[in-house]
Design a protein that fits this description.
581 residues, alpha/beta, Glucose Oxidase, domain 1, Enzyme I, Chain A, domain 2, TIM Barrel, 8-stranded parallel β-barrel, 25 helices, binds phosphoenolpyruvate, binds magnesium ion
Length: 581
């Protein structure tokens, strides 16, 4: 039966696929005890689900080829072994037969019990096996839950998968994206989370805050993910599929219209030039940035290199990634941000501090980098080497006070001396900029300007720290809005201080690529916007419709507003005016 679940759009687009559920650790199962005469039937159901899970693993192995197969087969082997483990199977049978547990509850009990055993192990490798146990038993639990009609199964088998999860860690998304994932439906999460940013970067449509997704959607259900309207349609009808095809046609037309802007200048209606830079993480981001006429890369988040694998990336590995980026931009400036690990970006190699009570307020970004000078220096060497291939700027995340910038400068100086001794080519200059995302850095920005060559405002974090509202918590949507007067005054303060000091100021948070905020940011005096490359043409299109002088003339009025509702109303009034006159 068709069902529509509402969510918030975190990454635009649409996708048709079959559901793959990733269950949160709390999973709702029927815990009522079994009656004696139900036991045999339920044991049969349990073993049928185990067989299905084995079959799925075999099928998965058959679908993979090349390097991916080599990597994934290791996991498949481990999972298959677990499914055949006599102790695990005996434990499950006993729980059903003797303990009168229903199969779902028995699987959950075994999963939690084994996970606790693995978690208590000292050896980090063995500890990490907990995830395997979790994944295998979750696979069986979902096989147990399947309720799909054979016709729908046939259609679903022809399309890729849409992930249905509570929330998803950026590292998991990065891994899944390479395996044909079509989109994501999160039952919680926020549009400013790192996973949402990554989804936009990967071009994966994504919904967050889709409350009932995990209880209403089952594995293999056919889903039309409509991340334009903010809906996940379960069991879509022929009419839904026609709407999807219509959207595909429209998206192609709009793409063709915008494509004409690829070589157009980025100017307001009154001919003020605005810099449009790209936030680029992957080779395809770089290609898209070039194709859409970006003025350079304003943010390259290097921590994604650290999230992919369980070992730290070597100097050469990093050098190659940075060099490819610099070369890929063909002489346009590239801003490489030093690793911003910590908070929700915990690396698999375990560099980020674990067990902090408040990780977002903890050892994160430059705070973490400076505590690991050897690892940080490896990154610095790789950046210096890559900077010989084109213009590079270095951006430092989570700066609070000048001494952090000075410490980074010192490490760059030492690395330069070392590389010189090793007769390795060095770039002549390498501007060092501070990211403004901590309120103290914004308020005391003049001190940071003395030791920075440029600034880049990270509004995703700055907003969460100014408003004391977690960027990933959708319950705080009414507080976490860039329209908050206190936040706007701080932005205006940073932009004007930077310009007064004669230093470039760009903004690389998500609002830079959101056309709803283009007028607002022009009003505050921003001249450089850095955004996901998919947004560049949209923002260029929007700029051409806005009058810079008119907007700047109203800035002080906007900054006197008391509430975000007033800001919103003023903004609408101000952006409407020139069209009337
Ligand atoms: C920001 O905080 O605005 C930013 C661009 O950095 P990230 O989203 O990676 O924290
Ligand atoms: Mg940030």
């Amino acid at each position: 039966m068709r069902q529509v679940l509402a969510g918030t759009v975190a990454a635009h687009g649409m996708a048709l696929g079959r559901a793959r559920l990733v269950h949160p650790s709390r999973y709702t199962v029927d815990t009522r005890p079994l009656a004696e005469d139900e036991i045999d039937g339920e044991l049969h159901r349990l073993h049928h689900a185990l067989d299905t899970a084995r079959l799925e693993l075999r099928e998965l192995r058959g679908r993979l080829h090349g390097a991916l197969a080599r990597e994934v087969n290791e996991f498949i082997d481990a999972h298959t072994l677990l499914l055949d483990d006599p102790e695990l199977l005996r434990g499950l049978d006993d729980l059903v037969r003797i303990g009168h547990y229903r199969p779902g509850a028995a699987l959950q009990k075994q999963r939690d019990r084994l996970c606790a055993v693995f978690e208590a192990m000292d050896d980090p490798y063995l500890r990490s096996r907990k995830e395997d146990v979790e994944q295998v038993l979750n696979r069986v639990i979902s096989a147990l839950q399947r309720q799909t009609s054979p016709e729908e199964r046939k259609l679903a088998a022809r399309v890729g998968e849409i992930l249905i999860a509570d929330s998803i860690a950026p590292a998991d998304m990065a891994q899944l994206a390479g395996n044909g994932l079509l989109g994501v439906v999160g039952s919680s999460g926020s549009t400013y989370s790192h996973s949402a940013i990554l989804a936009r970067s990967l071009g994966l449509p994504m919904l967050v805050g889709t409350r009932d997704a995990l209880s209403q959607i089952h594995d293999d259900d056919l889903i039309l993910l409509d991340a334009e309207r903010g809906e996940a349609v379960v069991h879509p009808t022929a009419q839904d599929l026609a709407h999807y095809r219509g959207w595909q046609r429209e998206a192609a037309n709009e793409g063709r219209r915008l494509a004409k802007l690829a070589n157009a200048p980025s100017r307001t209606r009154d001919s003020i030039e605005i810099g449009l830079l790209a936030n680029a993480e992957t080779g395809s981001d770089v290609a898209m940035a070039r194709a859409r006429g970006a003025d350079g890369v304003g943010l390259y988040r290097t921590e994604f290199l650290f999230l992919k694998k369980k070992v730290l990336p070597s100097e050469d590995e990093q050098f190659c990634a940075y060099r490819d980026l610099v070369m890929g931009m063909g002489g346009l400036p590239v801003t490489i941000r030093t690793m911003d690990l910590g908070a929700d970006k915990a690396d698999a190699a375990g560099l980020a501090t674990r067990g902090e009570e408040n990780p977002a307020l903890g050892v994160r970004g430059v705070r973490l980098s400076l505590r690991h000078p050897a690892v940080f220096s490896t990154q610095i060497r790789a950046i210096l080497r890559a900077a010989c291939y084109g213009p590079v700027r270095v951006l430092v995340p989570m700066v609070t006070q000048p001494d952090e910038m000075l410490a980074v400068r010192t490490l760059f100086k030492i690395a330069r001396q070392d590389l010189k001794r090793e007769n390795i080519d060095l770039p002549e200059k390498l501007p060092l900029g501070a990211m403004i995302e901590v309120p103290a850095a914004a308020i005391n920005v003049r001190a940071l300007l003395q030791c920075s060559d440029f600034l880049s405002i990270g509004t995703n974090d700055l907003a969460q720290y100014v408003l004391a509202a977690d960027r990933g918590n959708d319950a705080l949507d009414n507080i976490y809005t860039p329209l908050q007067p206190a936040f706007l005054r701080l932005l205006s303060h940073v932009i004007s201080a930077g310009h007064r000091a004669g230093k470039p100021v760009s903004l690389c948070g998500e609002i830079a690529g959101d056309v709803n905020f283009t007028a607002l940011l022009l009003m505050l005096g921003l001249k450089e916007f850095s955004m996901h490359p998919s947004q560049i043409l949209h923002v260029r299109d929007r700029l051409a419709s806005l009058d810079h002088a008119h907007l700047r003339g109203h800035a002080s009025k906007l900054l006197r507003a008391y509430t975000h509702e007033q800001v919103e109303a003023l903004l609408e009034e101000i952006t409407r005016q020139p069209l009337i006159s």
